Each structure stands twice: as structure tokens, then as C-alpha cells.
Amino acid sequence: MKKFNKYDTAKVKRATFQQLPKGAYVIKILSVKEEANSSGNGSHLKIAFDIAEGEYMDFYKKIFDQNTNEDKKWPNDAVHHMSVPDDDSPQWMIDNFRTFTDALEESNQGYHWDWDERRWKGLKIGALFCIEQSEYNDTIYDHTRPKWFRPAEDIRQNRYGKLPRDKMISSSSGSGITTDSDGFMTLPATSEEELPF
């Protein structure tokens, strides 16, 4: 191979990707924002969070703080997208939303769901994480993401049952967007989102 002159001045780029192990965690909500779905049909809540307790406390903040890029973003795996149901939504979606708000109430003394999701900032909730895959530029990526939600005390007392099943995609599927009958819409992780404080 013939040497080229710009080799010696090229920047060496190395990325270290840390992944949260699948499991059950108490998380803290950092911000919530309602956004329209890209399809133009309905909306979803974009919930930024971090691990609030235990061995992996502040897991995503540490990743964020170690990022030296000028335009660094809050890690995409620490942003949960929850579909906003209405009276025409499938029952499983309505049930999951009610499960989430009930778990928030049980996890935070004195909190009562009053249809103002902005009040979720600073609240804790238990979350069961699984591995989900997404595809981007013909490459499949693994992500650890929350799937089911429980009262925080259930996580602390190890009484949450089994973890959700991992969601893998085949390399020929062509899309990272999937929907379960037992959970929320999963959006592909093609970029990172800003921490919306």
C-alpha cells in the first residue's frame, strides 16, 4: 500500500460503548416532553431518565459526563418513548399507561396522577429492562431499555417476577421499529437525544 501524507495528521477516533445489564432498576425521571408521532397519528411522551439507586446509580450521567464532544447528547438508551393513548387506542396500550401511572403513585408518597405529565420530573419508578435491537445502516445494535414498569419498592424487595423477553430483529427485517402486544412502541435508536432539562 502506498503511504498517503494526511495519515500522520489524522485524528484517531475511539468510541467506548457501555451497556447497562438487563435487569430490574429503580429509575428517576429527569424530564418529560410530549411530541407528535412522525406518522402524524397521535403522540408520544419522551421520558429522559437515569438509574436512581444501587450499583448502577447515575449510569447514564456518567456516560454523558465522559463524552467530550462539543455537541454531546443525553444517551438515547436513557430516553423512553411511551405512546399516549386515547379512547380509540387498543386496550393493551391503555392498560400499560394506567400501570405506569399507578406505579408512579405507589413509588412516590403524596403523588397523584392529575393529567400533568410535567410533574413526573424528579419522580422514581421501578423498571424492568430487556435487550432490544435496532438496525441502522445495515448494522444491528443492542440496547438495554425499560419495557415494563412496577412500583419502586417491588424492585427493591425483588418481587417483580420475570424480566421481559429480549427483542431481537433479523438482519433482513429492514426496520428497528417494532410493537409488542404487551408493551409500548419501540422506536429505533438512530441518534441520541439532548437531555431536555
Characterise the protein shown here.
There is one protein chain. This protein is an alpha+beta fold. The chain has one domain (21-186). It is 15% helix and 28% strand. The protein has 3 helices and 7 strands; from the N terminus they run E-E-H-E-H-E-E-H-E-E. The protein has helices at 59-66, 91-107, 152-156, and strands at residues 24-36, 43-51, 79-83, 124-136, 139-150, 178-179, 185-186. Strands 3-2-1-4-5 form a 5-stranded antiparallel sheet. A two-stranded antiparallel sheet has the order 6-7. Residues 12-16 and 173-197 have low confidence and may be disordered.
Helix content: 10-25%
Physical arrangement of strands within the biggest beta sheet: 3-2-1-4-5
DSSP summary, beta strand count: 7
Radius of gyration: 19 Å
Characterize the main sheet: 5 strands, antiparallel
Report the order of strands and helices. Answer: EEHEHEEHEE
The overall pLDDT, averaged over residues, is 84
Distance between the termini: 50 Å
Assembly of the depicted chains: single chain
Q: How much beta, percentage-wise?
A: 25-35%
Number of helices: 3
**What shape does the CA trace take?**
globular
Low-confidence stretches: 12-16, 173-197
> How many independent structural domains?
1
Supply the helix-strand structural class: alpha+beta
